[in-house]
TrEMBL record:
Gene3D superfamilies: Mitochondrial biogenesis AIM24 (3.60.160.10). PANTHER family: ALTERED INHERITANCE OF MITOCHONDRIA PROTEIN 24, MITOCHONDRIAL. InterPro entries: AIM24, AIM24_sf, Trp_RNA-bd_attenuator-like_dom. This is AIM24 family protein. The lineage of its organism: Bacteria, Bacillati, Actinomycetota, Actinomycetes, Streptosporangiales. It comes from Actinomadura nitritigenes. It comes from the Bacteria.
Length: 223
């Protein structure tokens, strides 16, 4: 089975497994064991739970996180009961992986099953010329909850070659071939209009999740 995408659903609607959307802005985890979640994302819980800082997972991952700036601070939640998590009232979207991989912008991670394997990797085709683009990869079978700025679109890359702004692409199948297009000519028309646009190009069988915003914008400096 492919990765499954679960968009906004009616409040309290139950999904298979132990991740569910309480509403479009809040995740409900039916916890009986442990789960990894973004630090500070807990808004409420019912039952007995312990919250611990989750380290980088070894010196290798610690160095990768420090050097690349990729990843998000995580906490490990153990116990039994209902855990409710959210982040800045952002939209929440669920994926269920079945022995497959997902490449994710670490800043968009809200929670995932603790038995999924995670690593920080350079995006294929994004070398030094592309600014050294790194993302988090999650592998295995289990749930992943991501946050997005606004309601995203999921594009089927098997239909046609697919391109996305590098800051708007939230997640994509690890099975895809990824390249980087850079164009000065379109810099004032696409992306942030900084004079240079960086687009990710995807080919193969899989999907790309693209959010409706490039993220928070920084107001220009005034003199």
């Amino acid at each position: 089975m492919r990765s499954q995408f679960f968009g906004n659903m009616d409040q309290g609607q139950q999904l298979p497994g132990h991740f569910a959307l309480q509403n479009s802005k809040m995740l409900r985890v039916h916890l009986n064991g442990d789960v990894l979640a973004r630090q500070g994302s807990m808004v409420a819980f019912q039952g007995q739970m312990d919250f611990d800082y989750e380290g980088a997972g070894g010196i290798g991952k610690f160095i990768k996180k420090a050097v690349t700036g990729e990843g998000v601070p995580l906490m490990r939640v153990r116990g039994q009961g209902l855990l409710f998590v959210a982040h800045d009232a952002a939209d929440i979207h669920l994926f269920y992986l079945e022995n497959e991989g997902l490449t994710v912008n670490g800043a968009n991670i809200l929670a995932y099953d603790s038995h999924l394997q995670s690593d920080i990797q350079r995006v294929q085709g994004a070398g030094i010329a592309a600014g050294g683009l790194f993302n988090t990869t999650l592998q295995g079978t289990g749930w992943v909850a991501l946050t997005t700025h606004g309601t995203p679109v999921m594009l089927d890359c098997g239909r046609a070659p697919t391109f996305a702004d590098g800051q708007s692409a939230v997640a994509w199948s690890t099975s895809l071939q990824v390249g980087v297009n850079r164009t000065f000519k379109a810099g004032a028309l696409i992306g942030r209009g900084s004079g240079e646009a960086m687009q990710l190009a995807y080919q193969g069988q899989g999907f790309v999740l693209v959010q409706a915003s490039e993220g928070p914008t920084v107001p220009p400096h005034t003199h």
